[in-house]
Design the sequence.
């Protein structure tokens, strides 16, 4: 099992390479996934080639407002990077293997490192909207796992270890990049819920009791698929709102998008400094 997936990934990668004008030995070092409202980073790349997901064979398209749905290829400080501007979510009705197809493509293109980003609700009381949180670990509460089913032996093992899912070296680079760029970076545990409804206040109290600092509806399936494939992974949440029951305001996707817009400049600054450091990995 797995050959069919590998064939599909190779078909997708062939189209990407052709559109990017890459030679046989060209490959990106770093992959990036940009969450809700955080897509502007891709437009700062040099030598940008942007391919709509719809032009890539086997790619799931995204229906979420605030997600462009493009694979952007370019360079940052002369490092080649591949960026998914937008992602497919489980709550859109996609099968899990469709949700993780984009990051599996990044792995197949040759990325050794992938940085994931998302918008999330703040569960820890001190996390106000606008906080950037380096993810130290996660709680998978989606009730699903992208590795369910026959194992793709060609990609990775049946039972991958997630002890250090969030790469300690990449996290060190993130802390140093944050210090260098004078951006405040918190750290905490991300709880992944299925969505698309936001949580209830009781669920948020439960999550806090379980050790969650932030809550969202993405990222965890991608982290699992990337760790399965042996790719080194790190992730940042942009806290866009206080989680349910923690303020009097009504939760809305507009609030999520507005806050993401407000932190855009510092988010981009941090990401640029971080990706540059990761690209310098010996
Ligand atoms: N809950 C779940 N997902 C989210 C939230 C939230 O409060 N904010 C942004 N994504």
Sequence:
């Amino acid at each position: 099992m797995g050959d069919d997936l590998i064939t599909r990934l190779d078909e997708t990668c062939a189209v990407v390479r052709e559109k990017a004008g890459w030679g046989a030995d060209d490959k990106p070092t770093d992959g990036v996934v940009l969450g809700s409202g955080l897509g502007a980073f891709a437009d700062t790349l040099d030598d940008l080639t942007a391919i709509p997901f719809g032009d890539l064979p086997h790619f799931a398209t995204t229906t979420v407002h605030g997600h462009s749905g493009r694979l952007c290829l370019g360079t940052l400080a002369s490092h080649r990077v591949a960026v998914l501007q937008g992602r497919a979510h489980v709550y859109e009705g996609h099968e899990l293997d469709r949700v993780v197809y984009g990051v599996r493509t990044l792995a197949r293109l040759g990325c050794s490192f992938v940085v994931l980003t998302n918008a999330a609700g703040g569960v820890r009381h001190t996390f106000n909207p606008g906080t950037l949180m380096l993810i130290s670990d996660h709680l998978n509460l989606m009730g699903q796992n992208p590795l369910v089913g026959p194992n793709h032996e060609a990609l990775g093992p049946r039972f991958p270890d997630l002890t250090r899912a969030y790469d300690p070296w990449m996290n060190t680079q993130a802390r140093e990049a944050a210090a260098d760029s004078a951006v405040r970076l918190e750290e905490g545990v991300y709880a992944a819920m299925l969505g698309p409804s936001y949580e209830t206040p009781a669920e948020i109290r439960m999550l806090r009791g379980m050790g969650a600092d932030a809550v969202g509806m993405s990222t965890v399936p991608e982290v699992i698929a990337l760790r399965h494939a042996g790719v080194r992974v790190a992730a940042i949440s942009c806290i866009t709102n206080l989680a349910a029951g923690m303020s009097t305001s009504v939760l809305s996707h507009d609030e999520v998008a507005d806050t993401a817009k407000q932190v855009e400049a510092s988010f981009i600054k941090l990401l640029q400094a971080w990706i540059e450091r990761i690209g310098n990995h010996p």
Observations:
- The domain at 2-279 is CATH 3.40.50.1580 (Rossmann fold).
- The CA atoms of residues 97 and 189 lie 24 Å apart.
- The chain has one domain: 2-279.
